[in-house]
Amino acid sequence: MTTKLQEGILVGCGNPLLDISAPVPMEFLQRYGMKEDDAILAEDRHMPIYHELVDGYQAEYLAGGSVQNSFRIAQWILGQPNVAVFFGCVGKDRYADILRQKAREAGVNAHYQISEETPTGTCAVLITGTHRSLCANLAAANRFTIDHLEQPVNKSLIENALYYYISGFFLTVNPPSIMRVAATAHAKQRPFLMNLSAPFISQLFMQPLLDVMPYVDIIFGNEAEAKAFATAQGWAADEDLREIGRRLVALDKLNSARPRIAILTQGCDPVLLIQHDAPVQEFPVTRLAVHEIVDTNGAGDAFVGGFLSQFVQGKSLDVCIRCGNYAAGHIIKNPGCTYSGDPHFVDQ
């Protein structure tokens, strides 16, 4: 990176979770009523999963949560600390200390709200071959309140940011905080980016998602998430992904001077860039050999992190997307949403 960026120009809210990651047999998933590539919130029947992973499998701890992952990747590529500021809620425990340390090491300026009575959230990352299934127990992450954003130092960080990113997962926690950040971005004419995050968000939290959508300048999603949104909206079930993207772009928007953009990923198929009144653009993904794929966990978060690393530098959308593809490809070769060595993205 050549030009030094202002600190704190990127702000996001999300669910800070300690990932507990381990390879497991299919029988493990079935026992907990889960499918490959699930992304679900833990119910009572899932609660033993975390101890079982730690006690019975080769479990690793990783600092997780979708937005925090994306910010760690963006910081890795930028190579300059404290460009990204992250808000979320943790408990007062060892897991929170690990998360805080991991965030700091990654260069993310984490401003955690602390819940005295609820433990830090965890996410079981269940790896079956090249598939990964997520079961998140939000715990303290669920305790985030808008009061945290009203504290003078935090309010100032939000006011001074130039870019804002929030995951759809945060809709399950505190929609008023999302609306506050979105309204700030709108008032200051600064980009507000969001992610569909998982099919269950559209299935169960469609109203808060529709409430914030008029503020969203760039919406990210994968094929399954986009199709879940389309189904929940009553659009044709067999609709082409490009058409779903066009409809997403056409939803009501407050700032008509900045038409919405949809960026939809399709695994190893090309990324789609869908813009108002423009042909859909495709960006090919470098296919990896089977032996190179270690773990697809966090590939979507990494894509957004790569995108953001260029977007906050004012780079063009095609450069941002190519960096997203680069970051996702790198992360897939590592366990969990982790990276190794120095980044080697060239924006030509």
UniProtKB/TrEMBL annotation:
SUPFAM superfamilies referenced in this protein's UniProt entry, alphabetically: Ribokinase-like (SSF53613)
Reactions that this protein is recorded to catalyse: adenosine + ATP = AMP + ADP + H(+)
Biochemical pathway: Purine metabolism; AMP biosynthesis via salvage pathway; AMP from adenosine: step 1/1
GO molecular function list: adenosine kinase activity; ATP binding
Family annotation (InterPro entries): Adenokinase, Carboh/pur_kinase_PfkB_CS, PfkB_dom, Ribokinase-like
Keyword Transferase recorded: yes
GO cellular component, one term: nucleus
Required cofactor(s): Mg(2+)
Superkingdom, natural source: Eukaryota
UniProt-listed PANTHER family: ADENOSINE KINASE
Family: Belongs to the carbohydrate kinase PfkB family.
Function summary: ATP dependent phosphorylation of adenosine and other related nucleoside analogs to monophosphate derivatives.
Protein's name in the database: Adenosine kinase
The organism of origin for this protein: Drosophila grimshawi (Hawaiian fruit fly)
Species lineage: Eukaryota, Metazoa, Ecdysozoa, Arthropoda, Hexapoda
